[in-house]
């Protein structure tokens, strides 16, 4: 069974796109960050420039809803792997904001950084989903806060793009006995537990997970795990 809370945390942390709804308007944000509790940090002026100056640090903030989308870097017919919808109150951070965060968000000292702590979280996930529609799951806020982010989040997309462009035939050999001879096989996701390959036959698709021999904790370990699998495949 999938760890839905971990998936939700991972999607939010490494989201390709985030949009924020606040005070009757909704807008995409160019950059965001997350903290250890999974709260979303963003530039308040980017979303609500006309009223950002009215919000005071530490006060009860406005109700915010946010959407985080995880889009595959490999061009698939359906590139959105998952989306998380979150709602909760956003407060302006009171403690001194570190320079690295301000720089990442494109802010200068004194500009407000909002912190959205979600009360409700809904995950829509399409990878390894056997149904015709993506799985739609409500994630408890306490589970979301306690969950870890997958160690390959933010790195794996660059890697699977490289694998798709330079090692597609090697990947196919990993699942040669499971796929149709006429099938196209392309990577769609890599995580701590393995690599997910997507088989296309005409208009049909199927996801196949190739598991590592043991869970990996970083990109270097994932690369080593794949080399090990390929060497076994080469030996037959």
Task: Fill in the keyword field for this structure.
Pnp Oxidase, Chain A, 26% helix, Split barrel-like, 8-stranded antiparallel sheet, 236 residues, 2 domains
In total, how many beta strands? 11
Poorly predicted runs of 5 or more residues: none
Mean of the pLDDT scores? 91
- What can be said about the biggest beta sheet? 8 strands, antiparallel
CATH architecture of the largest domain: Roll
Protein name: DUF2470 domain-containing protein
InterPro entries: Haem_oxidase_HugZ-like_sf
Organism: Janibacter limosus
Detailed description of the structure:
With 236 residues, the protein is of the alpha+beta class. The protein has 2 domains: 4-146, Pnp Oxidase, Chain A, CATH 2.30.110.10; 156-235, Split barrel-like, CATH 3.20.180. It has 7 helices and 11 strands. The protein has helices spanning 4-13, 44-47, 99-105, 141-146, 156-166, 168-174, 219-235, and strands at 17-22, 25-29, 33-34, 40-43, 63-71, 80-92, 113-125, 135-139, 184-191, 194-201, 204-211. The strands form 2 sheets. Strands 1, 2, 3, 4, 5, 6, 7 and 8 form an 8-stranded antiparallel beta sheet that branches. A 3-stranded antiparallel beta sheet has the order 9-10-11. α6 (168-174) packs across α7. The two termini are 30 Å apart. 31% of the residues are buried. The model has no long low-confidence stretch (mean pLDDT 91). This is DUF2470 domain-containing protein.
